[in-house]
């Protein structure tokens, strides 16, 4: 399994995920837009609002980068945007997301086509290359699109081509968005991750920090078995008990892992 991805792979996946989400929500009624999504405390329309406000903010950051302005976003940049989007009714949130998403992708495509190697984007995590930036945006797009899809279809999954790219950033996500108290309770420990759709064991290493490595554990206390798609969603805090085919055997169970990865 490759550990890196180029900008074009991620941009293609971002476009595809965006297109699927447009087709999924375009015909929803206002009542359907107010249905609870899989994201905690957010309706379908509120997930679209989150994605739309992010697209607006990110378009601003892309323009800054194109102008050589590497100022990172601050609260004064984003708070008015969030407040305006939060105040919109559901149908307006969908319409505004549609427009903001299209504008963001068009701007990203135009800049990437001409400045892909040297272009830097001043992002929340610091200056990013186009490939790095597309990785962050794909994570948001894929997972939140699934939040909406899962509210409408109990069998929804993240598409396989996106899972491959999300997995390439799994250590970054897992190491940042883990629950410290749970990590302290479980560590030190090694958990083997047996991916049923891959031929290589992964190591979930629980210590002072948490990491996921493509390696055989030396002394695992437990084994997590399942598809790479289900494991990705577990790490993103989106495991569905009784639905997802994940099995944990040993001293670290599924409930421990769900507590370790509460999501965001």
TrEMBL record:
Task: Using the record's annotation, list all stretches that form the Mycothiol-dependent maleylpyruvate isomerase metal-binding domain.
Answer: 14-148
User: Which SUPFAM superfamilies does the entry link to?
Assistant: DinB/YfiT-like putative metalloenzymes
Q: Does the keyword Isomerase apply?
A: yes
* InterPro entries per the UniProt record, alphabetical: DinB/YfiT-like, Maleyloyr_isom, MDMPI_metal-binding
Where does the source fall among the domains of life? Bacteria
Q: Which Pfam families match?
A: MDMPI_N (PF11716)
An example Gene Ontology molecular-function term:
isomerase activity
| Sorted UniProt keywords | Isomerase
What is the name of the protein in this document?
Answer: Maleylpyruvate isomerase family mycothiol-dependent enzyme
From what organism does this protein derive? Streptomyces dubilierae
């Amino acid at each position: 399994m490759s550990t890196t991805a180029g900008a074009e792979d991620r941009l293609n996946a971002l476009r595809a995920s965006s297109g699927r989400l447009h087709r999924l929500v375009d015909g929803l009624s206002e009542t359907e837009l107010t249905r609870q999504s899989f994201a905690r405390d957010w309706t379908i329309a509120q997930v679209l609002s989150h994605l739309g406000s992010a697209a607006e903010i990110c378009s601003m950051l892309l323009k800054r980068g194109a102008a050589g302005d590497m100022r990172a976003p601050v609260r004064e940049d984003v708070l008015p945007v969030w407040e305006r989007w939060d105040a919109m009714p559901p149908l307006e949130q969908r319409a505004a997301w549609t427009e903001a998403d299209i504008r963001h992708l068009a701007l990203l495509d135009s800049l990437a086509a001409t400045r892909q190697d040297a272009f830097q984007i001043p992002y929340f995590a610091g200056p990013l290359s186009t490939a790095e930036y597309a990785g962050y945006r794909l994570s948001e797009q894929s997972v939140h699109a699934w939040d909406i899809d899962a509210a409408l279809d109990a069998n929804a999954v993240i598409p396989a081509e996106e899972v491959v790219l999300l997995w390439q950033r799994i250590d970054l996500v897992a190491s940042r968005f883990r629950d410290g108290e749970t990590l302290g309770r479980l560590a030190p420990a090694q958990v083997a991750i047996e991916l049923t759709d891959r031929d290589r064991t992964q190591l979930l290493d629980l210590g002072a920090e948490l990491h996921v490595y493509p390696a055989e554990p030396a002394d695992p206390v437990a084994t997590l078995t399942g598809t790479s798609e289900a494991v990705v969603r577990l790490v993103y805090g989106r495991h569905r008990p009784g639905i997802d085919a994940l099995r944990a055997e040993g001293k670290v169970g599924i409930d421990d892992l769900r507590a370790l990865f509460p999501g965001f």
